[in-house]
Amino acid sequence: VQLVESGGGSVQAGGSLRLSCAASGFAFDDADMGWYRQALGGKCELVSILAVDGYTYFSDSVKGRFTISRDNAKNTLYLQMNSLKSEDTALYYCATRVGHWGQGTQVTVS
Fold first, then answer.
1. What is the Cα–Cα distance from 46 to 30, expressed in whole angstroms?
2. What is the pLDDT of residues 81-96, one digit of tens each?
């Protein structure tokens, strides 16, 4: 199993970024997927979930600003982040429901 996040970077407050998570080594179209984040010195926080049945979850802190989607043909999970705030600064990870994690991609909002 491999999960590789990309798309992070530095952006000004109010800006947007789209994170991608390329998955391989498992049946991506049968997997519930999620995005997590961890700020420096902070605890790991669940940001969003996209289940196979279409169920979505967003934390209160990102609701209305972030959207989650997937392209099963490309085995890729996305997180569209709009209206970014400084408190969104963190290392963002994608993960499967059964506990596989990527290496993370850094998002810095100034």
1. 20
2. 999 999 999 999 999 9
